[in-house]
Amino acid sequence: MKTITLNNGVEMPAVGYGVWQIAPEACERYVSEALAAGYRSIDTAQAYYNEEGVGNALRKSGIPREKLFVTTKVWISNAGDEKAARSIDESLRRLQTDYIDLLLVHQPFGDYYGTYRAMEKACKAGKVRAIGLSNFYDARFVDLAENMEVKPAIVQLETHVFCQQAKMRELVKPYGTRIMAWSPLARGMNGLFGNGTLQAIADRHGKDIAQICLKFLTDEGIAVIPQSTRKERMASNLAIGDFELTDEERGMIRSMDGGKPLAADFNDPALAKFLLDYDRQFNPGK
Ligand SMILES: NC(=O)c1ccc[n+]([C@@H]2O[C@H](COP(=O)([O-])OP(=O)(O)OC[C@H]3O[C@@H](n4cnc5c(N)ncnc54)[C@H](OP(=O)(O)O)[C@@H]3O)[C@@H](O)[C@H]2O)c1
């Protein structure tokens, strides 16, 4: 399976399985199916409330721990040195593991400097192998990357054919940070699965649109964490190693980039206000 080498030498599978919005009670089953389909990298978060289901599936799989790659994220309500440190121990307990492979600051709100410091300490203590960010853009990303000792290994961003993150890809280079695409299939938005250009490329290769999208992103050096609750799609989303896109096809897909996220613009103050209000109401850390 194709891997990406992070800026601290850790190897990460280029394709992982995401579990956002998978109910806690269903998570164990879907992650077990994903592991059976061949996934070895799982992306969860404290705020998904399903770390325990991920942990159950990993433990019961019998797959040696070193062959697995587990990503989780510290939520806003756990921000700050002490709360983040406690939440990391709690994530380890829920995930039923001695270490997290990749730990991210989930959203750029609250005391995320304190959170990142706690993550650096967890890294030094051997509880975490690599740390990074999620939804940090532009000046916020640069400020943190410049100021912290451990440079973010990953920044997880909404990335798909309609939002290819050209600017962020350049901006993260000096820090050796890699991009991990959330919603790599754009959750089907913008008519992705009915897109004529993508369908024509897919037909040429005997593949489907999802495979073309995932192949394109991983070829660009971007990690992807598609989600599906259907076994056949779990498998097909992983089966992208047996064909090559042509330069012309890559050019056609590059020209689809609208340069703007479709789901969430983290530079938008209205989104920040909405998410902070939401967090105060449903604060999962308290
Ligand atoms: N860091 C963050 O803030 C953040 C935000 C959002 C997401 N994420 C992570 O990114 C992961 C993936 O993102 P996402 O779940 O939003 O979106 P996604 O992976 O782009 O799309 C998932 C949707 O596409 C469908 N799908 C999957 N494979 C398909 C295929 N081969 N053909 C047709 N439809 C297909 C799925 O439906 P079926 O289940 O019916 O197949 C599901 O509705 C999440 O699970 C989460 O781990 C992170």
Automatic annotation (TrEMBL):
Gene3D superfamilies, per the entry: NADP-dependent oxidoreductase domain (3.20.20.100)
Record's keyword terms, sorted? NADP, Oxidoreductase
NADP-dependent oxidoreductase domain: from which residue to which, for each copy? 17-256
Listed InterPro entries? AKR, Aldo/ket_reductase_CS, NAD(P)_OxRdtase_dom_sf, NADP_OxRdtase_dom
Q: Which Pfam families match?
A: Aldo_ket_red
Establish whether keyword Oxidoreductase is in the entry.
yes
Into which family does the record put it?
Answer: Belongs to the aldo/keto reductase family.
Query: PANTHER family in the record, alphabetically?
Result: 2,5-DIKETO-D-GLUCONIC ACID REDUCTASE, NADP-DEPENDENT OXIDOREDUCTASE DOMAIN-CONTAINING PROTEIN
Q: What is this protein called?
A: Aldo/keto reductase
- The protein's organism comes out as Bacteroides gallinaceum
